[in-house]
Specification:
The complex is a heterodimer of chains A (about 130) and B (about 375).
Chain A: E1 8-9, E2 14-18, E3 24-28, H1 30-36, E4 39-43, E5 50-51, E6 56-62, E7 66-70, E8 75-80, H2 82-85, H3 90-94, E9 103-107, H4 120-130
Antiparallel strand pairs in A: 1-2, 2-3, 3-9, 4-6, 5-8, 6-7, 8-9
Chain B: H1 7-12, E1 16-20, E2 23-28, H2 32-41, E3 43-47, E4 52-57, H3 61-68, E5 81-87, E6 93-101, E7 106-111, H4 116-126, E8 133-136, E9 141-147, H5 151-158, E10 171-176, E11 179-185, E12 194-200, H6 204-214, E13 220-222, H7 225-234, H8 269-278, E14 283-289, E15 300-303, E16 306-317, E17 322-329, E18 339-342, E19 358-363
Parallel strand pairs in B: 3-13
Antiparallel strand pairs in B: 1-2, 3-9, 4-7, 4-8, 5-6, 6-7, 9-12, 10-11, 11-12, 14-17, 14-19, 15-16, 16-17, 18-19
Helix pairs in contact in B: 2-7
Classes of the chains: A alpha+beta (about 130), B alpha+beta (about 375).
Amino acid sequence: MARPNNARYLESHEWGRLEGDGTVTIGITDFAVDQLNDLTFVDLPEVGDKVTKGEAFGEIESVKAVSDLIAPVSGEIVEVHSDVDGDDFSALKTDAFGKGWLIKVKPDNADELNEGTKDLATYEKQLEEEAH
Amino acid sequence: MRETPLREEHEKLGARMVDFAGWYMPVTYTNIVEEHKRVRTKVGLFDVSHMGRYWIGGRDHIKLVDRIITNNRATMKPGQIRYSLILNGQGGILDDVLVYSMGDEGTLLVVNAGNRDVIWKWIERERKGFVVDVTDMSQDYAMIAMQGPESVALLNKISDLDTKKLKYYHLTRSTVLGDPEVIVSRTGYTGEDGFELIMSANKAAHFWRELMNVGKGLGVGPAGLGCRDTLRLEAGMPLHGHEIDDTINPLEAGLDWAVKLDKEDFIGKQATLDLKAKGLDRKLVGLNVAGKRIPRQGQEVIRDGKVVGTICSGTLGPWVDEIIATAYVPPAMGEVGMTFDIPFRSKTKAVKPGDNGQKALVVPLPFYKRPGKK
């Protein structure tokens, strides 16, 4: 799966992408989906909720463990992926950067997305290091 | 981190490696569910070399072993294996172990990886006054478990051993892949039929590759620690650090059958007798949990709005296809059919009034019994 060049990445494997309409789409990377691999439950917030950069906006659970989902930007949620919230993970497994998105946020400050996050090359370097 | 002689084999198979009790071990090769089902229907290979293998020989080996274990070593026949506990003076469980009887020659203890140092020091402390030779064979030998209904067929492909004669919880020294010194035991930690092989560390990689190779037609595959945990939990087997630890007595964990209170003195016997006389405050139960979320270790168990217990382990059982868990609750609440609430605090949604979380129902342990087993 080609990872998008126009997204920003967190060390904890979330991605955020600024869209043409000014919203930020947030998801987790294919690597994270692969690592979790036996997904059982995703807990997402509701439209209108606020998320804070660097803090948990939800949880993702697998047979083995529960992990926080970390927001790459602060803002207000404008859309939630109802399939994933309803425990249908098929899109997440096949298209983590497209149909497998988790939430869409209207950012308080879109520039914040670039602060403390990684570009694709830096993120992929991290993945290489984690593999060793 | 310590590693086993099979590290390279795991990496070649693309395993996800993790730190398990200080060991660099495979957690999955593909995913837990697939590996779990392979063990229930075909045969899976586990690297269990990280477990400790301690040899106790010499004139007094049986006496020393019977002092530190709860089960009875003196009554074991050569080639027999017994599950046992090692207790501290307060009756808490230091480890659960397999005791291999090599007759008068000696006793092999197979201990959990995470308790290797604790048990080694315990033996060193207790051996004083006994004429024994104690050897840590762990590094010189490796251990591979083959588990699942096809494990008999797999073993038959690599040895002349008559598997019909090797009964459950027995061992034999046998020639496997041309090596005459392999210890083969009919044991495991999955709830399936299977064997565990102990061979020289330098032969482990060869054994692993051959098993993978000759087992192709039988559906063999590698199985990681991830499914080892879900398999043992379905089979109702305790894991040290979860269902049992050094603050829990075997009576509380439902392991009475492995504690021979009529045996001459052993460490922890008096404390166990005292507890038995006084009565238990808690007992281990199996829970079937409704809903979507999996209870995890340490989570609260509620009844009538009060915290009455704690979760030990929980998972989505890949074979039973239900959320299962173990927990300690007061004995009076431990009857099959009792119900509890397991609260889950969402990170994102406020708890609605009247939302008590997910319902949990006490069910008999184990959650899974293999077909044909009594």
